[in-house]
Design brief:
The chain is an alpha/beta fold. It has eight helices and six strands, in the order βααββαβααβααβα. It binds guanosine-5'-triphosphate (GTP) and magnesium ion (MG). Guanosine-5'-triphosphate (GTP) binds next to helix 1, helix 2 and helix 6. It comes from Elysia chlorotica.
Length: 213
């Protein structure tokens, strides 16, 4: 059995300009900048933080790319081994929201088995204005409709603001908790299936022992 601190890879995904790199920066060193970081739009960034979940240290590694995941040469390493995707949109931009189903398909096709967390960023821009001035914003009923349609696909739904920091740190910790508990429950299930002293099933076709992985 592998030893060491459990580690979970989470990739950022979503339309250009929704705040993926800003989320990454909040994760990395809890900062915010209004300047679009050139570096993050041309390459891959990754940062790791440790959380204590159920009295155990757990590592979360967040990966960011400025839309380069759409290019196949970076795509495979970006998606490879991802335990989860943080699918981002801007609550102030309906287009970034209506395109989410395409991104979900993309994740399902490229990062098989990855959990999907939904993150509506830029809540500061919407919370500050009245209902009648919402304009291009994503409404609560838009979100409710979408999340009920995708209930089975989404492992968590968050609303954050990178500008004022609302919801970010809780979101990261919640993802770490979800991924770790999910992994632990899978291990328990596996242990329950292979009872000590039991004989692994034989392949009926050739009488050989079946490989488990
Ligand atoms: N008001 C406000 N602005 C934000 C927030 N998050 C990000 N921004 C701004 O939105 C712009 C785009 O943010 P980025 O983090 O570069 O977005 P991105 O998704 O990484 O963009 P690409 O890498 O080009 O896909 C920047 O000018 C940020 O300062 C937020 O929560 N509130
Ligand atoms: Mg970026």
């Amino acid at each position: 059995m592998a030893t060491g601190v459990p580690s979970y890879k989470v990739i950022l995904h979503g339309e250009y300009g929704v705040g993926k790199s800003s989320i990454f920066r909040r994760f990395m060193n809890n900062t915010f900048t209004t300047a679009t970081g050139k570096k993050s739009t041309i390459g891959l960034d990754q940062s790791t933080r440790t959380y204590t979940i159920d009295s155990q240290d757990v590592k979360l590694t967040l990966w960011d790319t400025g839309g380069m995941e759409r290019m196949s040469f970076i795509g495979s390493s970006y998606y490879r081994g991802a335990h989860a995707a943080l699918l981002c949109y801007s609550v102030n931009n309906r287009d970034s929201f209506t395109i989410l189903s395409q991104y979900i398909l993309d994740i399902v096709m490229n990062a098989e088995g990855a959990k999907i967390f939904l993150c509506g960023n830029m809540s500061d821009q919407v919370d500050a204005v009245s209902e009648s001035d919402l304009g291009n914003a994503v409404t609560d009923s838009d979100l409710e409709q979408f999340t009920s349609q995708c209930e089975d696909v989404l492992s968590g739904v968050y609303r954050v603001s990178c500008k004022d920091g609302t919801g970010l740190q809780d979101m990261f910790e919640d993802m770490a908790r979800f991924l770790h508990r999910n992994s632990m429950s899978k291990m328990t299930l596996r242990r329950d299936l292979v009872q000590p002293g039991s004989t692994p099933e034989r392949d009926e076709a050739n009488g050989e022992k079946r490989r488990c992985c």
